Amino acid sequence: MMMVLMQTSAFAEAIGWHWYNEIYEAKEKPIKNKSVKPKTAEAEMTKLRETVREAKSKAILYPTEENVREYITLQNLVAEKASMFSSMWQKVLLDFPELSYAVLHPTENNAQHVLYEQDREKENQAIALYREKYGMFFFYRGDNLLDQELAPTIASFSKENQISLIPISVDGKILPVFTESTIDKGQAKKLGIKYFPALILVEPKSRAVQPLNYGFISLDELRHRFLQVATDFKE
Q1: pLDDT-derived band of residue 202, with 50, 70 and 90 as boundaries?
Q2: Which phi and psi angles does 131 have, rounded to 5°?
Q3: Is pTM, for the whole model, over 0.85?
Q4: pLDDT digits (tens, 9 = 90+) for 158-182
Q5: For the chain, how many structural domains are there in total?
Q6: Do residues 66 and 141 both lie within one domain?
Q7: CATH number at residue 175
Q8: Which of 32, 37, 174, 231 could share a disulfide with 235, CB 3.0–4.6 Å?
Q9: 3-state class (DSSP) for residue 198
Q10: Cis amide linkage into residue 152, ω under 30° from 0
Q11: Looking at 50, 80, 104, which one is the last position of a domain?
């Protein structure tokens, strides 16, 4: 809604300035030189901004009745055109619903729980897809506080979703949260992993490797990452 209001104000002001010119410049003689190019909307917008700023500054510095009246007149014209633009915006969205972001991505509170449940179901399906054939390597640094904080999340996720996990310490220190953990013996280098912590999907039979995440990640983000990987980040 904030973006709509900003766009509304910007475009409306431009139209408002054009209308203002028509009112106060109607008596001017038309330009005879036909080679002069008509003003663009961007040019009118630039002129509008300058005019409104000048009128406001003039009204503040020299608060005469005439100066204040001129500034208020400009503001009223802008407000009226803004209202017209806002109404037309809604009409266009009704005539062309494919342009409405809210159709596919409703933001109302009553719709959020429905979308949340749909997303959770898609995530569960993606996790189940990888559970059947893949396991996870978790490369971590036992002396690193960030890795220590993330480790329980990885362990809990693996247990709850029944995905096999092999934790691998790259600095030789084993974290107690992992009941079974190994020391890195060149696996990270062989897989080209240079950033930690690193969570990697591995398919034992084909030895296919799919990076899942580097650095810290929340539980909700981890669940959604499976969906992103499963759909090649098209979801």
Answers
A1: very high
A2: -60, -35
A3: no
A4: 999 999 999 999 999 999 999 889 9
A5: 2
A6: no
A7: 3.40.30.10
A8: 231
A9: strand
A10: no
A11: 104
